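Following up on my earlier thread - several people asked me to post the actual chain instead of describing it. Fair enough. Here it is, all 121 residues.
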Amino acid sequence: MVKRTGPTNPHLQQLIRDLRKLSAQNQVKLWKRIVIDLQRPTRIRRKVNLYKIEKYLRNGETALIPGKLLSLGNLTKKVEIAAYQASQQAKEKIAKSGSKFLTLQELMKKNPQGKKIRIIG
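Reply from S.P.:
Thanks for posting it. Predicted structure:
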């Protein structure tokens, strides 16, 4: 049987530690769920295109993507999008639409209670 090692990226390891700590401090299950998704192998981590965000979010909501944000589709709504990774084209489209892109660390500081956040993917 193969021994499970988890992510080897030091930035991802630190993010996972921070998420666990925040989850324990505030008793928020959302952050624990994100830890589980980020610990998955890269090849099966979530990949979300902008058209899904356009389809499932309303104006003013926050999307959380525990994986990579890709640029297929257009975004017309004013939303906040937080993702572990994002393509440069996706970031440009988000900026053009008037929406805001956040890293997971920024979202953790802004909304530690995890209120009104949708996990997409």
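The chain is about 40% helix and 20% strand. That should answer part of your original question.
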